[in-house]
Design goal:
Layout lengths: L3 E5 L3 H13 L3 E5 L2 H11 L3 E5 L7 H10 L8 E5 L4 H9 L4 E4 L4 H65 L4 H16 L4 H10 L12 H4 L7 H8 L1 H9 L5 H12 L20 H15 L11 H10 L7 H9 L1 H10 L18
Helix pairs in contact: 2-3, 5-6, 6-7, 6-12, 6-15, 7-11, 10-11, 11-12
Length: 366
């Protein structure tokens, strides 16, 4: 396909002279009689070079040049301005409107062809670069998509591993591990009600189920004791916070980093009387404060080998009384406002209970 040159001039003899020179050199010639017509043809035909006179009816060559250079579809087409004025100010004016070259009338045949060929080469390089950039962008998009898919799969596998790790401790004192699932779902409800960012909400949902992972390191005789722990035994039990944080430490994933904080702080109290560090108020990370109240509620309303599940209203009264003492006052209010959704989670993730089994049938040994 021959390269195209658009010749724009309102005088037919001038167009014919330019056509003769350009066609002889092997180019296809398009014609326009004014700036407006030139813009229409340029947008439709995408010529390789435009040869534009300045003084024309309807629209001047300089105005047409400005419009073409502002259009993303035509800005890359080189424009040669044909002018009778050769002073510096006029040349600067042409460049101001976006002209790539200019020729002073009357022009020489060889000069015209030299300018056209040079600009055609520049246009060819630009087109080649544009095509290469397009191919490169597609390649990058495809590779980026593949990497995103691979990362998503890896992230899902990592989160599944985290969930399984969180349930590991529960299999020692809760046969089903449903407690960890409920804690994660309930904590998500609280985080959503607090209008946290979605990424943080997701991390809280996945991190909080690992709050008791440290129980793996607690002896069975203490962990499974069907009765109240002695002060000495309770001191051993408290170590599960440090053990859990140690197990989860140095994790590179944001969920693992948060899980370490949750494991360490979910037994801290708002008034500073909790363990293991005696943190108070906002010294306790928000995920630890959320997990604290959720863990308390779910543990109290769930059956244990040493007691039956406590009545929901009784537990809610206990939470109200501990507002500002054990629990963050704001989170208590949010928790109570979300109780219907929390109870739905409780029901949904307690379906493993044997049909017909009642809490009253369980041993109650505080």
């Amino acid at each position: 396909m021959k390269p195209k040159v658009l010749v724009v001039d309102d005088e037919a003899p001038n167009r014919a002279f330019a056509r003769l020179i350009i066609e002889e050199a092997g180019y296809e010639v398009l014609e326009a009689t004014n700036g407006k017509e030139a813009i229409e043809i340029a947008r439709k035909e995408k010529p390789d070079v435009i040869l534009m006179d300045i003084v024309m009816p309807v629209m001047t060559g300089l105005e047409a040049c400005r419009i073409l250079k502002e259009d993303p579809e035509t800005f890359h087409i080189p424009v040669i301005i044909i002018t009778a004025l050769g002073d510096l100010n006029h040349k600067l004016e042409c460049f101001k409107y976006g002209a790539d070259e200019f020729i002073i009338k009357p022009y020489d045949k060889n000069e015209l062809l030299l300018r056209v060929r040079n600009l055609f080469k520049i246009k060819s390089y630009h087109d080649l670069l544009k095509d290469y950039s397009y191919i490169l962008e597609r390649e990058i998009d495809e590779r980026t998509k593949e990497l995103q898919e691979a990362y998503q799969k890896l992230d899902l596998a990592y989160l599944e591993l985290i969930q399984r790790l969180g349930r590991a401790a529960e299999y020692r004192d809760d046969e089903t591990g449903e407690h960890t699932k409920r804690v994660g779902k309930m904590c998500r409800i609280i985080a959503e009600a607090l209008e946290m960012p979605e990424e943080l909400i997701k991390n809280i949902e996945y991190a909080t189920p690992m709050h008791d992972i440290g129980k793996i390191g607690i002896p069975d005789k203490i962990l499974l004791k069907p009765g109240k722990l002695t002060p000495e035994e309770f001191e051993v039990m408290k170590r599960h916070t440090y053990i859990g944080a140690d197990i989860l430490s140095k994790g590179a994933h944001p969920v693992m980093e948060m899980a370490e904080r949750v494991a360490l702080t979910h037994h801290e109290r708002w008034d500073g009387k909790g363990y293991p560090l005696g943190l108070k108020e906002e010294e306790i990370p928000i995920e630890g404060r959320i997990c604290s109240i959720v863990d308390f509620f779910d543990a109290c309303t769930s059956r244990r080998i040493y007691r039956a599940a406590m009545d929901v209203e009784k537990v809610l009264d206990m939470i109200r009384k501990e507002k500002g003492m054990a629990f963050d006052p704001q989170i208590v209010e949010v928790f109570l406002s979300c109780i219907d959704d929390i109870l739905k989670v409780k029901e949904e993730y307690s379906k493993n209970r044997k049909r017909g089994e009642k809490d009253e049938d369980l041993q109650h040994n505080e």
